[in-house]
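In practice, a research group might receive sequence data for several interacting partners and want a quick structural hypothesis before committing to experiments. The following worked case mirrors that situation: the sequences arrive first, and a predicted assembly follows.
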Amino acid sequence: MAMPDAISFLLNGELRRIERPAPERTVLDHLRLVERRTGTKEGCAEGDCGACTVVLGERSGDAVSYRAVNSCILFTTELDGKLLLTVEGLRDADGGLHPAQRALVEHHGSQCGYCTPGFVMTLFALHHAPEMTDEDSIHQALSGNLCRCTGYRPILAAARSVAGVGDDRFARMARELLGRLDGLRRAPGMATVIDGEYGRYDAPESLAALDRLLTAHPGAHLLAGGTDLGLLVTKQHRALGHVISLNRIPELSRIEASADALIVGAAANYTDILPRLENDWPSFAALIRRLGSWQIRNLGTMGGNVANASPIGDSPPALLALGAEAIIRSAGGERVLPLERFFLAYRRTALDAGEYLRALRIPRPAAGDFFRTYKVSKRFEQDISAVCGAFFLRFDDAGRVTLARIAYGGMAATPKRAVGAEAALAGRRFDAAAVDAAIAALADDFTPIDDFRASATYRRHVAGNLLRRALMERTAPETPTGVLAL
Amino acid sequence: MNDMPKGGVRQALRHDSAVKHVTGEAQYIDDMPELPGTLHAWLATSTKAHARILRMDLSAALALPGVAAIVTARDIPGRNDIAPILKGEPVLADGVVEHVGHPFAAVAAETMETARRAASLIEVEYEELPPILSIEQAIAEQAFVSRVLTMQRGDWREGLRQARHRRTGQLEIGGQDHFYLESQVALAIPQEDGDMLVHSSTQHPTEVQHGVATLLGLANNAVTVECRRMGGGFGGKESQATIIAGIAALLARRSSRPVKLRLVRDDDMIVTGKRHDFLIRYEVGFDDEGRIEAIDMELAARCGNVADLSPAVLTRALCHMDNCYFLPAVRARGLPCRTNTVSNTAFRGFGGPQGMLAIEAVIGTIAHALGRPADQVRAANYYGGAGRDVTPYGQRIRDNLIPRITREIAAQADYERRRREIDAFNATSPVIRKGLALFPLKFGISFNLPTLNQAGALVHVYTDGSVHLNHGGTEMGQGLFTKVAQVVAEVFRIDIDHIKVSAASTAKVPNTSATAASSGSDLNGMAAMQAAQTIKNRMISFAAEHFGVLPEQVEFAANRIIVGNRTLAFGELAHLAWANRISLSATGFYRTPEIHFDLERMQGEPFYYFTYGACVAEAAIDTLTGESRILRADILQDCGSSLNPAIDMGQIEGGFVQGMGWLTCEELVWDATGALRTHAPSTYKIPVSRDLPPVFNVRILEDAPNRAATVFRSKGIGEPPLMLAIATWLAIRDAVASVGGHRHAPPLDAPATPERILMAVEALRKGAG
Ligand SMILES: Cc1cc2nc3c(=O)[nH]c(=O)nc-3n(C[C@H](O)[C@H](O)[C@H](O)COP(=O)(O)OP(=O)(O)OC[C@H]3O[C@@H](n4cnc5c(N)ncnc54)[C@H](O)[C@@H]3O)c2cc1C
Ligand code: FES
Ligand code: FES
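A structural hypothesis for the assembly, expressed as tokens:
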């Protein structure tokens, strides 16, 4: 079987081939150091400032979808078969500015200009996002781009003027671009294997192939969105050695709904998950919209979030409270594990060597189910939780709690259920007295730590108060809770 | 024909690099094409807050393939001193490291990655020494980086004793990282004769020049420093740029190759200084109306391991602890605390913000003590009226705009009605509380040190009428190049497209001051105006003589010159003047008149004028989590007669949001070992678009030409708007105070993070319960 050891992509429309790329070479470094396209800037190398934002184009049905991503933590291998757009590639042939560029100029949207190429690319993606024209969506779109000079007002004005317009020259040449993207497709069975001096990279195309690879190389790093893995490279300066990408296995990106559950493929990214989640669990969807930034959600996956097993990951508390299960797979077959048995210790999971997360199974709501999840951080957008709480309650006809699942992030070494608090609520009406009892029980459920995000005292206090917030939203839904909605 | 040249003063022109910004063509230092052989550098920095270096072993680092040079303090050919004000501040630690992140060596290698690895291979053996990690500890040990400053007026002791009411208070004010998007960077290129050319992302090319010359043991004329643009500065690239440029130059000298040192974000935040955090303690005496009779305030600043610009920062803090309020008897002491943390430095406002926040806390204390609205207390204390118009440092206020601005902002923001609405809302809202505050601001413009208030410019007119402009100011995004070009366009009455502004360079305009203190356009605009005027005068005399008319009959109209009844294009006259051997090049020089200041006594008239402004902010807090949000802000800002309303608007909005970050979400956290734990955007949160108040009305004060004879009667605008954000902190505090029925002063420090807000709410609940 032919095994290509190069990747191909279109850089601003021009064909590029990289022979044996190092598996951890970032797109940003490639652009700046190899291509010498210096329009794309480095502001942080950790996905948090957006100065490095580029846009990936790929086929989505009959159209090209454009997504803003952070080039600083994206590996070049993941460009294979895609269109990479950078700030240098937006002008017309006659030098005319793209509408996103023009809007920023006209609204005085740049001062020092260092953040500007990143904003241009985000605005380009926004221009091609017909569903994102309201104010809230525009803030979501800009959440991954920092500007220290302008205070954002002019950038917001520019963003409003281009959001969802989608009538640029790229729209006009969609057909041609699709043709060229299709031309980059590998023949079926041409799995990518790069075995170069800097390490090895595999991009298997089926679960079976992945099973085999992982059996042979249990120590390889699995790569989904890379928004956690990328940081090992850019912040901890680790050479990854062997990377296996999950991004070419269709089953892993699939999101399926059965009558009683959503099955979210482990490599499905948040942007794709969101519309499906919105239907079933709007509070969860609202939380995910505060996970990372637009760029991060375009790459990051819930599977990666769970597998990464950070105590401050945002989806685990909600998944725990909803009673989600991990579908774990290896060459030996599949097993299903309730999520609370997945997190063993600080960043340790129940995955054995050769096993991987295939999907998450999230139960769908039954009539009357009450669910809320809340994140508390120093900044609303793109910040890591100091505390994240999730509350699932089911009631009998008399309004007594028949099932309580409460889980927190940021309160222990793993995302964790609050068993004591759950017990305190069970069988009671959900009222102030019950909540007080549950809060008292939280003291035994958790011993949080002090760190730069918050003190233990604050974490404990807020963990309890989030339960009070849930109570208010249940009993006095018209009373405003939370300042974001004001 | 339209008689307005395109791009004169008062026009809302866009930034001169706007198109280059959006296309990625604007070149920053890290984008410059690299010369063959260019090396990349990395710093080796201390992991200890305070330690003696017993042994340093470079052998493993030197042995790494690709490593070209390593420098330590011992390898410095000149003097290891880059102190901007005092003396004895080494660029590379010599024997003793004084904070975590203190550079003690630097590596140059073929790639940045190799340099980084090599730096990590340098072996160091430390003997730990006791560190000073907090302001309190420094005060207890009387550890200061420079002398304690005292500003006094009247008999403050007696005033306090006799006052009807007296209160004491304390406030912690957090620091702030600049978080310019472009981290610090320099590219040093060895020249013939051992000279050095340095491209430095700096607000102060002259200081970098002096620093590099000192380190290399060269005369100043052997070092040229250039900067076309920075990706943001905010004060962080004033003195700190010398560290980066100095080390790059040392490595370039040692390797005889070009060396680029670009700090990655974490290193930038760990190695370079920030806004000083302050600990404020005060005692204030006041009457029944809340009128201040005497105040004694101690302003203690965390300066870090060396003085750097701290004495000047403290001076400005003292000169702004009055804000808009007349303090009849006052003692203010500035304590420059020496700590084993990174040396803090200039940051937009330069101590002013901390001084102002301090006095605003005092106003709040008085208001709560008397059970009066803070606005009434403010009104009782505003400057104005006989005998109440002199600042504690002895400057008479001649341009008082406080009454006008506070009146107009209250109307603009519908203040009274909203005050009532918010009180009504709070009366029934169980979880969410709202707060409102009106904050007025007065900010002194000029460097406190009179010497620094000077600038130079160089203007050439070419024979086709195109103009080359150079001045001592640097472009960091604030639009200075655009504004100064507008001034020159106005003088020559030509379209601004005919003017090119080139990189700031020590070879073109020497002995410059930092682009700082909101004085960039005041100083450089005037110098450029003068240079242009010199050439224009020559052109006028020449034209008069050449065409046999009176000088008064030579008129510069838009892009053309009317000489008697003849009309020439600007270029035609330039060509003719050249043909007749008239010089079309001139330097300009400006120094601010009238100012004087005695740094010893802290008395004088250091400011040429004051810039005023006001902000009304509305905040909401969640009393369950402490989360807060600014719902609305109304701003009225004095810009004199604005040189460019679009650019000034950008300064106002951007400064405000930056100030909001300082007072809300931006928190610097050091751990018990003295290491900074928030050293990247993942952990240090500056505002994003969502944080902008959903209702944000910004106006520039109209019809308010500067009383002082500044360039076209404009005012400096770089710093003042940052302090407008004090209104947001006050509004949050007001919301917190509502929990205790406004009867107790909320124990709220800055920044008002969710945690601080919640803890203040809880304290009030306990106190009230
Ligand atoms: C700027 C920024 C902001 C962020 N903000 C947030 C936030 O607000 N909240 C939050 O929770 N997280 C946040 N994160 C972390 C990260 O984005 C999430 O954890 C994300 O869900 C990770 O998904 P990924 O697909 O990118 O994971 P990857 O980086 O691809 O993988 C993460 C880890 O999981 C392993 N892995 C991935 N898939 C599998 C699998 N199927 N089976 C077994 N192992 C697997 C990988 O080997 C790796 O060790 C942020 C990250 C960045 C860079
Ligand atoms: S460089 Fe900051 S997000 Fe990539
Ligand atoms: S324009 Fe300077 S950071 Fe945005």
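Before designing any experiment, note the following. Chain A has a mean pLDDT of 96. The pocket of flavin-adenine dinucleotide (ligand 1) is lined by residues A 46-48, 73, 221-229, 246, 266, 291-292, 296, 299-301, 303-305, 307-308, 313-314, 351, 356-357, 382, 384 (CB under 6 Å).
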